[in-house]
Amino acid sequence: MPKKKKSSEKEHIFEASRLTPLAVRWKECVKNGEDEEAMELLNEIIKGSTLMFQMFAQHEGYHNTVDLDRLVSAAQNKVVRWLDGWDPKKGKLFSWFGKCAKNAFRSEVIRESELRKRMHSTGDNLEKYHGTEDHGAMTQEKITELNLLFSSMTSRWGSKQEIGCIKFIVESIVADETIKKTIVIRSAGYAWGVSPELAKFFYSWVLVELRKMYYRRIRVPFSEQDLFRQAHAYTHLVDLLEIVTWDQMKQIIAVMGGSRLKIPTLAQIKKLTDDYYLSCEIEESDLDPSSVERIGKKYGKSQRSAQDIFNDMSETLSSDVSGEYSLYDESDGLWS
Fold it and tell me: What is the pTM of this model?
């Protein structure tokens, strides 16, 4: 029978057999006031944990939103607090560091989102492209105009894969109006590693954005407001006209016609707000399981529920879905 490998041979990203005794000794040194030895032990523990922090950040994809070095540094800066809150009797050091590090990464994602929201500029107003229709051949002037028009396109997603997928769909639709929808969606998903469901949504979103662009450039004929009210008298569209103007209603029809929107309830908005406040308190804590459990009790949640809320909120507040991101650089053009 083959010999069993020693546990130390299986330790690739975290040498638990070496770092756990160091952590125990560090707690003893801190308790006894042996500061010099405690500092040396702390440096060894941080060095030994760095690879784990890097691998965790990459595995969970946090490095797509925040720079990897910044994520690792955020985890390293909190190692002292995590060691202080670790109880060897309740769990392994690796598991404790793993939970704490993920919370630290989510906190950095939220900070990055808030920073981008404050600093981002949405770009030029598309109204200056009004009244430039040309139904003739593709002249150089037409190409230049279209490049200027599409250079103003932005998206609320910052991921390179998602932006690449959107650009692929835009260029496919504009270059060939006869190409089948299913082919574009499937090709975009395969080319940029995006799920079929997300690629399908991006296709629908691109159509809405293209309609917005052309709506601002041409005058679309609509029926009169009274005729609209008569035709939709037995729907909530007439009630919506008490909230928005007729011109705003026409724009909604032009750019989102055929789409189905589920309007949230006030209870859902309140829950979202409560979850945000809970998430903010967790972010300001030491980000260890004990802190999560304490804050969860304050809001009537279990530790697991509070942790799930923090996880979901870190994704909700991700900078990948906030702000406006340019789809095309100045050097990009749909046609050469």
Answer: 0.54
At 192-226, the pLDDT tens digits run 888 989 999 999 999 888 888 777 665 544 456 77
Q: What are the tokens at 196?
A: 């079929």
- What whole-number distance in Å separates Cα of residue 239 and Cα of residue 236? 5
Tokens encoding 121: 């500029």
* 3 state SS of 154: strand
Residue 329: strand pairing partners: none
DSSP letters, 309-327, are HHHHHHHHT-GGGSS-EES
155: enclosing H helix or E strand: strand 154-155
Residue type, 193: G
Q: CA–CA distance from 206 to each of 1, 142, 178, 199, 291 (Å)? A: 60, 21, 16, 10, 43
* pLDDT tens digits, 252-301: 888 988 888 888 889 999 999 999 999 999 988 888 889 999 999 999 99
